[in-house]
Specification:
alpha/beta; eleven-stranded mixed beta sheet; about 20% strand; nine-stranded parallel beta sheet; about 700 residues; binds beta-D-galactopyranose; single chain; 25 strands
Length: about 700
């Protein structure tokens, strides 16, 4: 290229860039606030003349995000192939004028009537063989190829239109994946999935021990779907297939969006806390952000179980998450839909942020005038005027705005991890052996006292890297694959303390019995094992270095084979078999340690077991001692730590701080904070050395 033509080209390029400049400028929006308050808004349910009044009230409450579009398929595509997105574009633009960003939901949880009428195979079939009908939601068949084509198509049309919209922050795929289909085509997809996993029928027959009850398969097409009572290998495979199918259902829409949307637009979906209808680690791994719907239902916020559900969600992608739906006061689906108390909604919002939520979004702004959820809590009433709760949410909005700059870029960090596995939860639930043995309750029985001491816990899958933790607790790791066993052994060998709880290491990766006693492949490391387990009719007494107390629901008779194994607790008089036998053992292995707890300790005993676990592992509270009922939630930044304190006790409490700290909410430096019931403090200090 000659000098002149080069010069001409650069001039041309400059001219082109210049002409694009206004468009690029238009295509930008200021970044949304770091801690967002949001609400679900369904503009399609209201005359456009009403939008402005709603958005003005939202802005006044400090709301900066609306979730729009989920369930609006019949408005976006009123008949096959006829699209209307103009109203949606106007809604996004109207919100933007009020400084409100939009998260667009794909509407696939609510297919339009024309679709399912013309293509009935897109409707799911339940286990009894009944096909769902139009009139509710979630009636679609998650594995059906025709449904997937339509889902992809609507997602693609939305992304083409809004993938560059500066006020669209991100995308939510579908809504609360839950109902699956048992139709013949899904069954043959399952059989294909099994073929890919097991290769040969001989392999499958042997790993499932199908010789039992003459279940041996001579053709893949003979394999049924069982979801509650069936061969344990089949049950586990079905749930893994379901998880993979939800993942591909989601990916189908994600790919359509990714092809047309700017990378800054995140993709998420809304999950449901402890819901175990699929393996959330499988399904969420493709997402940019984890998000969940946090509802109390009947009663009041339980900071322990709710906090654990936050930590579980944070563990999906091991980073901050969103509370993408939460209740403004009350729901409409619990047996008694009582309202949260005055101040409790605000306390809950701060509890969310304390556990790593960067957004709290209320469902919903206003009830549809007709529809299944007329009684649900809202921020404005049917008259369009603020509900009593509005002013409390307005306060949250002000507080998020004030504290956002300090909280930006901060995240919880923990010295303690609790391991959680869907395989193990399913395996225990299918064969509880004691009807009251709830694997989530088992996790929470450890979580509560350990959280109170350490003031921060991560809940993560057993495949996660563990070296950052001083203490790793696996309450019910029933299914233990060889890979996970290696991860745990490596953790102990590098100096960590692994605590195994009841029913650990009993099953292999096919949900079959391990051929070694529990904890299976970890027996050599433990230097001891479970000789026998017993479901209990009544609690049995135990005593030892944690004190004396009761063992509930389940008892495991332990033996200490190696001379360096220390017995921590022993059973008292019980069924004869257990009397005087080891109930909890521990062994130092190099710089690390492994402990097995064969009991379900009563609350008092668990508190002292938790104290021992943390003491022996060198775990320290994040802030320091606080009065009972006050929750401490630390979020760490590059230079500072922000402590969110929430008083969930019924009385006023005073927390003495270990050193004077900055009061982010009210300004000034404080050596102590006094909190009324549901009171909140946000304080910050330089990172501890
Ligand atoms: C959620 C759902 C919302 C709304 C809400 C009511 O499960 O995602 O659309 O129905 O429940 O509590």
């Amino acid at each position: 290229m000659s000098r002149t033509s080069f010069h001409f080209c650069s001039l041309l390029l400059a001219a082109v860039l210049f002409s694009l400049a206004p468009a690029m400028a238009q295509n930008q929006a200021p970044p949304p606030p770091p801690i967002l308050l949001g609400t679900a808004w369904y503009p399609e349910q209201w005359p456009e003349s009403r939008w402005e009044a709603d958005l003005t009230l939202m802005q006044q409450a400090g709301i900066h995000m609306v979730r729009v579009g989920e369930f609006a398929w019949s408005r976006m595509e009123p008949s096959e192939g006829e699209y209307d997105f103009d109203w949606l574009e106007r809604a996004i633009a109207a919100a933007a004028k009020h400084g409100i960003y939009t998260v667009l939901g794909t509407p696939t949880a609510a297919p339009p009537a024309w679709l399912t009428q013309k293509y009935p195979e897109t409707l799911r079939v339940d286990e009894q063989g009944h096909r769902a009908e139009h009139g509710n939601r979630q009636q679609f068949n998650f594995a059906n190829p025709t449904y997937r084509e339509f889902a992809r198509d609507i997602a693609e049309h939305m992304a083409r239109r809004f993938g560059h919209n500066p006020y669209v922050m991100g995308w939510q795929i579908d809504n609360e994946y839950s109902d699956v289909s048992f139709d013949p085509d899904t069954r043959s997809q399952f059989q294909q999935w099994l073929k890919a996993r097991y290769g040969t029928l001989d392999n499958l027959n042997s790993r499932w021990t199908t010789a039992y009850w003459s279940q041996t398969y001579s053709d893949w097409s003979q394999i049924p779907i069982e979801s509650t009572y069936g061969n344990p290998g089949l049950l586990l495979s079905w749930m893994r297939f379901v998880s993979d199918t939800w993942r591909s259902y989601q990916k189908n829409q994600m790919d359509a969006i990714r092809a047309h949307a700017e990378r800054r637009q995140f993709i998420t979906t809304n999950t449901m806390g402890w819901f175990d209808g699929f393996d959330h680690y499988t399904v969420t791994q493709d997402l940019d952000l984890a998000a969940w719907d946090d509802y109390v239902g009947e009663g009041h916020l339980n900071p322990t179980s709710n906090g654990a559900a936050h930590d579980l969600t944070r563990g999906f992608l091991r980073k901050n998450f969103w509370v993408i739906e939460t209740q403004p006061g009350n729901v409409n689906w619990a047996p008694i839909n009582n309202s949260l108390d005055k101040g409790e909604v605000r306390a809950m919002a701060w509890h969310d942020v304390g556990h790593g939520a960067d957004t709290v979004s209320y469902w919903q702004w206003r009830s549809a005038l007709n529809g299944q959820e007329e009684y649900h809590g809202t921020l404005v009433g049917p008259d369009g005027a603020p509900a009593p709760l509005y002013s409390e949410v307005e306060q949250v909005g002000r507080e998020f705005a004030k504290t956002g700059p300090v909280l930006a870029g901060t995240t919880p960090k923990s010295e303690v991890a609790i391991l959680h596995s869907y395989d193990s939860r399913w395996a225990i639930n299918w064969q509880r052996h004691n009807k009251n043995f709830d694997p989530v309750k088992e996790i929470l029985s450890y979580y509560g006292p350990l959280r109170a001491i350490s003031q921060s816990i991560d809940i993560i899958p057993p495949t996660a890297p563990l070296s950052q933790y001083k203490l790793v607790v696996a309450p019910g790791l029933n299914v233990l694959s060889d890979g996970v066993a290696q991860n745990l052994i490596a953790y102990v060998r590098q100096g960590g303390h692994l605590v195994l709880g009841q029913r650990s290491g009993m099953k292999n990766d096919d949900n079959g019995l391990q051929t070694e006693r529990q904890p299976g492949p970890l027996v050599p490391l433990l230097g001891g094992r479970v000789e026998q387990y017993y479901a209990l009719l009544n609690p049995v007494p135990v005593e030892g270095s944690w004190g004396s107390g009761g063992d509930e629901l389940w008892a495991e008779l332990l033996s200490a084979k190696s001379p360096d194994v220390e017995v921590l607790e022993r059973y008292g008089k019980s069924n004869g078999w257990l009397d005087g036998q080891p109930a909890a053992i521990t062994r130092k292995v190099g710089k690390g340690r492994i402990t097995y707890i064969g009991i379900w300790p009563d609350e008092r005993l668990m508190a002292s077991a938790a104290k021992w676990m943390t003491d022996v592992s060198g775990v320290k509270p994040a802030l320091g001692p606080v009065p009972e009922g006050v929750e401490v939630d630390p979020r760490y930044g590059a230079h500072d730590v922000v402590y969110i304190l929430v008083n969930f006790s019924k009385a006023q409490q005073t927390v003495t701080l270990p050193a004077p700290m900055q009061d982010v909410l009210n300004g000034g430096s404080r050596s102590s904070v006094t909190l009324p019931m549901y009171g909140v403090a946000v304080i910050s200090a330089p990172l501890p050395k």
